[in-house]
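Consider this today:
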Amino acid sequence: MSSIVIAPSITRIACASFIGTAIEYYDFYIYGMASALVIGPTFFPEGAPEVQIFSAFLTFAIAFLSRPIGAVFFGHFGDRVGRKSTLIASLLVMGISTTLIGCLPGYSVLGVWAPIFLCVCRFGQGIGLGGEWGGAALFATENAPAGKRGVYGMFPQFGPSVGFLLATGSFFLLTQLLTDQEFNQWGWRIPFLASSVLLLIGLYIRVSLAETSVFNGILKKEKTVRLPIKEIYQSYLTPLVLGSLSMVVCYVLFYISTVFSLSYGTTMLKIPRQSFLGILSIAILFMALATPLSAWASDKWGRRPTLLVASLGAFLSGFILEPVMNSGSLFFITSLLSLQLFLMGLTFSPMGALLPELFPANIRYTGAGTAYNLGGIIGASFAPYIAQRLVDEGGVAWVGGYVSVASLISLLAVYFIQESYINEW
């Protein structure tokens, strides 16, 4: 099979590793926002409002539970067949699942089958995203010059910021152009259907990718592993666990600051959804700003020192969550969410280099992707649901405590990641 091979310039590396994660996270985030705004009434209409929110957040969790499955499945082929073809396949699975959600009739049409089909689509989203990040991170870092893996590894880490900005912007625009009734009936489906256009753009960019030289070297030396996941559990379990736990703070910070805060702000604080989406659009810019700063710092001073400082800042931020959120001040709420998403960027960006560095090349796709997505189960899958329960049981101050505990877990995990675990390319 012949293909057009283009030299991996830094621009092309950035575009190829960034575009997929931007699209994948756009797909993922539009569901997170829809779950906070309309998924409950559309697919679970017979429950009370709080039951609808819980049900919507539980479907949100399904995709996180399936992400490690996607990481192992796509990682297996990424470590045996190649990074390029696996990246294309994961993007297709994610994009098709997202588009189908936009076409899915609600409970009033399909009855109980509506939430069942919704769960199937969410499962597909998780499978696709589970295979996406590992490949994108490896394509960036395996093409990086010496001493620049942190900077190159930030390219896929930019994807979530842009994907979230696109998702938030699309919902914000729709709430401006449509009435609440129009938005709730059909308007919320438009961002899901638009995912098909983004999917075509992503496929166009990735089809002409060249395989990384690192993987070509594995093939030449015939060093592929028959079952990468087995090798990881036998020989690299400690790096896998520590890598997973180091991701917890990233996920908790992000989904508390976005999905939970959107639900809490619009329902409990009665802030108009247009205003709150505007707040999130501002706050996410601080996450994008933190991404290159943290990547540069991780190359200059090391991954561990950078992450330890950022995790400590996240720990302290949990103590101010309750007084700021309950102040009702749009300025203070915007400042808090901007701070927490800035800290999220600081903790998230170095992961693009750190997690691949924990595993040798022939099991790197599986190892990095599995660690990344196991962290998602712990840190994100039930984060909005847990936060909602904490509010009901003890108030929003408990949510701040939740953020601080998650930050402490990651801080300790990073502390125990020893240099001996970090493999040279």
In short: The chain has one domain: 10-421. The CA atoms of residues 268 and 306 lie 36 Å apart. The first helix runs from residue 10 to 37. Residues 10-421 form a domain with the Growth Hormone; Chain: A; fold (CATH 1.20.1250.20).
